[in-house]
From TrEMBL:
Pfam name, any one: DTW
Species annotation: Sphaerotilus natans subsp. natans DSM 6575
UniProt GO MF annotations: tRNA-uridine aminocarboxypropyltransferase activity
Keywords noted in UniProt: S-adenosyl-L-methionine, Transferase, tRNA processing
Ranges where the DTW domain occurs: 1-175
Any one GO BP annotation for this protein: tRNA processing
Protein's recorded name: tRNA-uridine aminocarboxypropyltransferase
Top EC category: transferase
Similarity section: Belongs to the TDD superfamily. DTWD2 family.
Domain of life: Bacteria
Enzyme Commission code: 2.5.1.25
Length: 176
């Protein structure tokens, strides 16, 4: 799929070898996607590669009140800032590991955040546990964000349909 907004996925090393890895499908399905595997990234390289249009796809989390982003982050909601977004930065990790990645990489912590709204029902719960009912897989979150940012709710539906088939095959294998 020809996504207009570039996607940078920072994947925790433990996720890279996970059989239920939805990022592998994203990497195959999107034309503008870059995958970096690690927990800590070179600060200068990360900062240089992000640019002013980069947004972190991540829910709001408490931040120190002295941080300039503590106030600014509340302004970014989908799709209100769609025109300004040129790169979507996504962490692919468990929630605990993603928080650790944020703290280990101050350049990520400083990024304005985009928090998804109007979430579709998660498809991934059949394969993995989630702490909350509204948690999505990385593939679902990226497709939802891109659809909202690009204001085209059907554009990424074929990728989501393929993901549903992937889940169905996984469930059939697990049932044997």
């Amino acid at each position: 799929m020809d996504n207009r907004i570039e996607v940078l996925i920072l994947q925790h090393p433990l996720e890279a070898h996970e059989a239920k890895n939805s990022v592998a499908l994203l990497a195959l399905g999107l034309t503008r996607v870059r995958l970096e595997i690690g927990e800590r990234f070179d600060a200068q390289a990360l900062s240089d590669g992000l640019g002013p249009g980069a947004r972190l796809l991540y829910p709001q989390t408490p931040m120190p009140s002295t941080s300039p982003q503590a106030v600014e982050n509340t302004k970014f909601r989908l799709p209100a800032e769609a025109g300004a977004v040129s790169r979507l930065v996504v962490l692919d990790a468990t929630w605990r590991k993603s928080l650790k990645m944020l703290h280990l990489n101050p350049a990520l912590m400083a990024l304005p955040r985009l928090a998804l709204q109007d979430l579709p029902p998660p498809r991934y719960r059949a394969m993995r546990r989630a702490r909350r009912a509204d948690q999505l897989s990385t593939l679902e979150a990226v497709c939802t964000a891109l659809a909202q940012l690009e204001q085209d709710e059907t554009r990424y539906q074929p990728m989501l349909d393929g993901f549903e088939r992937f889940i169905a095959r996984w469930q059939a294998r697990a049932a044997r």
